[in-house]
Structure formats: structure tokens, C-alpha cells
Amino acid sequence: MSDDLFKINVGNLAIKNPIALASMGGITDSRFANEFAEDAGLVILGGYNLDAATNHAASEIVKRGRKEFISDEPLQLIDNELRSVKTESVVAINVRSATLEPLIEAAIMARNANAIIEIDAHCRQPEMTELGIGEAFLSDLPKLRDTILKVKETGAIVSVKVRANVVDNIKMAKAIEDAGADILHVDAMKEGAGADIEAIRKIRDATRLLLIGNNSVNDLNTAKEMFTRGADIVSVGRGIMEDPSLITHLVNETTLIQKELGWYNAPKHVCRGEGDLRGLAFCCMPVKPCPVHSNVKKIGLSPKEFADVKMEFAKGTPLEYGDSTCFGSLVWCCKITKMCPLRDGVLEMIGLSDADYMELKRELADYILDHPKVTGK
């Protein structure tokens, strides 16, 4: 399997596929990763408690029957764990601390090991939130921003794990991105069962950070639901306890999709009301009443500017062809999974494979959303 098949890069690291092992307190250590996540693109160890306050809180949590990692020398534990992972995955360490200095030390350790540090703004156990950490970070975004800024100053690649729907998801995502984080890991929790897929879509539209979707990823269909709403990676937690081969299965199936279709997490069409803004790559020319107009408005472009941006990208690429298509160019054509004899006839005529067509559409989506007119740069 080619390590660059999926083109998932963060900092100086290339993540070989979009399936991750999520951190689970007291469970996800190097032994667990080596046994169940050999094929994962990313393994997230932890959460580890870095100072006296969090280790004491963890001891109280254990008394209630939950599992936790507790250590008198947490940094030595993390160092040993980083050295003990035998998979070829990128490794991250999920950490908690009531004080800043241990986070800085852990970040330096992660950086030196070519690993990622993940700040836990997710744990909802009262022993942790009473310390002002875990989920409590989300109610104090200035504190979370300052923590991210200080940790990022070490040069480490920084992920932040959060729980959706605790505070305003959009404000949260923008604050984390503005603070300089590299990855946003979202537990898309909702009341009842299952994941809040709409939360993933809205967060995707609010940030260009590498986005990891989490919650109830138990099979390929649930993974695809997150991928098509904008998750770059999905993380697996409890599901692997029920199906030890889950990560391998998801990696194999997602690899087949990528090889055949060229864009494993291609969005749904925006005209269906389900696609994120990347779906503008599949939109028709904005000449009739359609959701394309409201979505183009979201990114600050007029219909004409949007048309100009797409045609700028198409120039000199195979997407420029397609006189016989609805709008005279493949740049306006839809997702390859939607039947279209006109589009397919042009692809056959110019010798462009489905996967190569979709790869160009992925590049087009990035071009639109990274355009100076959109970003304000």
C-alpha cells in the first residue's frame, strides 16, 4: 500500500490512511495499539495524566470503576510508550494537565519523537472538569486558546480533542484554528445514540484544520457518513472492543474506495443539503435557483466570481474539456458516483480515469476554499 495514496499530511508527517485508533483512558496504550491497530494510519495513546492534580483525579475516577493511566512519573511513562509502539502508524499522545509546564514538556517529547501531542478538551469526568480541564476547556475558550498557543510554541504538531455540542461548535472550531492548532478531533456526540453527522459538516465548513471524526464508528457505513461530511480521518474507540479486526477492515475498504474513486472522503452534493462546502467542486454553473447560491455566499464570492475561480482552475487541466457536457466543461460536472453519460463520454474520449477525475475535483475544492478572495489573504 502506498504511503501517499491518501495524501494526508500534517506538519512534517504523512499519515498513511484515514483510520485512527482513538485514545481511551486506561486502555489505549502501546500494547493495545500493537495488538489491535497495526494497520491504522494514526494511533492516539492515552489519555495520560501529567501532573499531581490530574493523577489524583484519575485515582478518584478509578474508585468509581473506570480505567485510567496513573503514574508517579508520567513523562517517563509517555517516553516508554512512544518507544514501544511497533506499528508503522503516526503516533499521538492524548494528555491532560492542570498546569502548563507538563504540557510543554510532553509536547517537546512528542516533537522529538516525530509524534503528535493531543490536548484533551474532551473528558467530562467531574474530577477532571473541576480542575478546569477536559470538557471544561470549552467553556473557557480564551484559556484553551492560550494553552494551544503555548504548546504550539514548542514546534510540536498539536491536535485538540473536543466534544461537539457542548458550546457553539463553530466558535469553538474557529478559536482552536486561530490559536494555531493543526488537528481538530471531534467526538460528534449527540443526545441518544449515534453520531451527530450534521455537526461534522458544519465544523468542516468552519475550519480548514485536519478534521478527525469520532463517535459510533463501528462499520464502513458510519465511517463513510463522516467522510462525506468532511472528516479527513475517522477514529475508532469502543467499536474495536467488540470487533478486534475493525481497523483492518476499515483500512482495507477505504483503500479500495480511494484506488477506485480517487477521493475517499468526497462530499455529498450541496444541492442535496448534505454536502459540505467542498461540494462546490461538483456544482453546476450558478445560472438558476439552486443551493449553490447560498453556499457560494457563505464563502464570500458572487456567482460570477465563483464561476471565474472554477474556470481559472480548469484552464490547462483535463477539466477544461467537455464541450458536449451541460455547461461545456468538466469543471461543472458532478461526482463520479452519480450517473452521467455526457460526463462519462468525455472522460472516455480524453482517457481520464474516474480516480484521476475525482483527484482533480479534490484539488479544485481546495483551490476554491483556499482562494485569496475566500480566505481574505
TrEMBL record:
Pfam families: Dus (PF01207)
Protein name in UniProt: Putative methanogenesis marker domain 9
Signal sequence range: none
Domain (DUS-like FMN-binding) ranges: 85-253
Species of origin: Methanomethylovorans hollandica (strain DSM 15978 / NBRC 107637 / DMS1)
